């Protein structure tokens, strides 16, 4: 049921319908559901401010909610919070082809924006795979397959509007390509995981749609040869739009799932963009030659829109292919990132840890920016092994001068590693920043830091 809020000066409803509580009680990596105290569906900035005023005056914690596609517990409740769902704030407010910008509400999804921009010949490049909301993508500093060329969310959010729990609305950043004015508070909010306030509007960079695109799928005898080939291509100076590594288990699973009959070998997925066919052909030739020198076994080149769609479908469907291969299991994705030269050590270390803990998993990721994922298919009785593996993998990434999270965020899953990565003094400064934005600790408590309200 949905009930009107009986609170002086406020008019909105809190839903406690079972379907709404279920939908807002988990994220992509959750194996169980924890219901929030209720769900508020905001349709405007005023709705957001009303919900935040209610939270402030009643001491009720708030979890900002977009599409629920985060992977490390950012939107998972403890049970006493209101889930503030902004998915109905889904208007594209304006866009300027001349300025190469678009202004949106936080509930606009990546695919919705792409469809809106298509006729203008521009696109928004950040592609985390899931059809996430742009507010949620900013909240986690999401990135994906195109980061090697276009950067992640922090590089593509020019300005944003942040509603604070005290009722103020801050405009952070300006719709310009560069500024040296004051502290970059906009960049602080991007990646803050809903712990500082609620993003109620964003202005984003958009980019020209490439005139000419080609994709390459290349198979290698082993992961080491594939990663060596990736480095050779990156060091050649050829500008890449995408560069992905997929291990043989993932290739086998997706081949069976999509009936592709692919060689069950580690593969690189590459994409190149150019303004001319001649320029693109020359760059593809350089890449193919380099892959050959690195010991490639087989190369497929995609040139038509249909071929490109099929090539990248085989990369983006890995998660679903593994679900089909291991029915009845739960799936958890990890998200470490290291300097490019340490990627082979991270991949081999991850595979060794998986074997040590007797876990089935595929290894893949954005090798072009050092970000490696493992998708672990596990049973209920493997919960302890999974926890030990995730902890060991994060420590391995830190030992390799990397980070415990390249793009998913800290959430709850990686809280224990925040101090190990940054140090006590830095994390205490982070806590001070959080208290400055949210003195009462009402915004997404229990996330980012170990379980304290500040």
What characteristics describe this protein?
454 residues, alpha+beta, Uridine Diphospho-n-acetylenolpyruvylglucosamine Reductase, domain 2, Uridine Diphospho-n-acetylenolpyruvylglucosamine Reductase, domain 3, 4 domains, 16 helices, 22% strand, D-lactate dehydrogenase (cytochrome), EC 1.1.2.4, FAD, FAD-bd_PCMH-like_sf
Description of the structure:
The chain has 16 helices and 20 strands. It has 454 residues and is α+β, with helices and mostly antiparallel strands. The protein folds into four domains: 2-85, Uridine Diphospho-n-acetylenolpyruvylglucosamine Reductase, domain 2 (2-Layer Sandwich); 92-208, Uridine Diphospho-n-acetylenolpyruvylglucosamine Reductase, domain 3 (2-Layer Sandwich), CATH 3.30.465.10; 212-319, Alpha-Beta Plaits; 326-417, 2-Layer Sandwich (Alpha-Beta Plaits). It is globular and about 70 Å long. It starts with a strand and ends in a 17-residue tail after the last helix. Residues 32-209 form the FAD-binding PCMH-type domain. GO terms for molecular function: D-lactate dehydrogenase (cytochrome) activity; D-lactate dehydrogenase (NAD+) activity; FAD binding. Belongs to the FAD-binding oxidoreductase/transferase type 4 family. InterPro entries: FAD-bd_oxidored_4_C, FAD-bd_PCMH, FAD-bd_PCMH-like_sf, FAD-bd_PCMH_sub2, FAD-linked_Oxase-like_C, Oxid_FAD_bind_N, Vanillyl_alc_oxidase_C-sub2.
């Amino acid at each position: 049921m949905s009930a009107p809020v009986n609170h002086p000066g406020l008019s909105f409803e809190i839903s406690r319908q079972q379907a709404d509580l279920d939908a807002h009680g988990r994220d992509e990596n959750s194996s169980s559901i924890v219901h929030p105290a209720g769900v508020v569906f905001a349709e405007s900035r005023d709705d957001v401010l009303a919900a935040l005023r209610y939270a402030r005056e009643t001491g009720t914690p708030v979890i900002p909610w977009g599409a629920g596609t985060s992977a490390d517990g950012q939107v998972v409740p403890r049970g006493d919070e209101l889930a503030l769902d902004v998915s109905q704030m889904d208007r594209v407010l304006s866009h300027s082809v001349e300025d190469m910008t678009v202004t949106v509400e936080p509930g606009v999804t990546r695919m919705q924006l792409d469809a809106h921009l298509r006729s203008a010949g521009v696109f928004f490049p950040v592609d985390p795979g899931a059809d996430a909301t742009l507010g949620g993508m900013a909240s986690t500093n999401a990135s994906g397959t195109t980061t090697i060329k276009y950067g992640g969310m922090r590089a593509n959010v020019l300005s944003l509007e942040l509603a604070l729990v005290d009722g103020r609305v801050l405009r952070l950043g300006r719709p310009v390509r560069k500024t040296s004015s004051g502290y970059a508070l906009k960049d602080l909010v991007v990646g803050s995981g809903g712990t500082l306030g609620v993003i109620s509007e964003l202005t984003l960079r958009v980019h020209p749609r490439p005139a000419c695109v080609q994709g390459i799928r290349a198979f290698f005898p082993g992961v080491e040869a594939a990663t060596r080939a990736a480095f050779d291509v990156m060091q050649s100076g050829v500008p890449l739009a995408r560069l992905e590594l997929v291990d043989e288990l993932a290739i086998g699973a997706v081949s069976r799932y999509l009936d592709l009959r692919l060689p069950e070998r580690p593969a690189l997925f590459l994409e190149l963009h150019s303004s001319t066919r001649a320029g693109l052909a020359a760059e593809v030739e350089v890449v193919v030659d380099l892959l050959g020198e690195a010991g490639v076994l087989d190369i497929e080149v995609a040139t038509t829109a249909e071929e490109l769609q099929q090539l990248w479908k085989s990369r983006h469907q890995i998660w679903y292919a593994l679900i089909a291969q291991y029915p009845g299991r739960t799936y958890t994705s990890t998200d470490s990132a290291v300097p490019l030269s340490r990627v082979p050590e991270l991949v081999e270390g991850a595979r060794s840890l998986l074997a040590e803990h007797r876990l089935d998993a595929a290894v893949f990721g954005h090798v072009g920016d050092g970000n490696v994922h493992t998708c672990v298919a596990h049973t209920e009785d493997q919960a302890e092994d999974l926890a030990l593996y995730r902890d060991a993998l994060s420590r391995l990434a830190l030992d390799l001068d990397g980070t415990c999270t390249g793009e998913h965020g800290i959430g709850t899953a990686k809280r224990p590693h925040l101090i190990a990565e940054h140090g006590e003094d830095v994390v205490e400064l982070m806590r001070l920043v959080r208290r400055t934005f949210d003195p009462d600790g009402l915004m997404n408590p229990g996330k980012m830091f170990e379980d304290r309200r500040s």
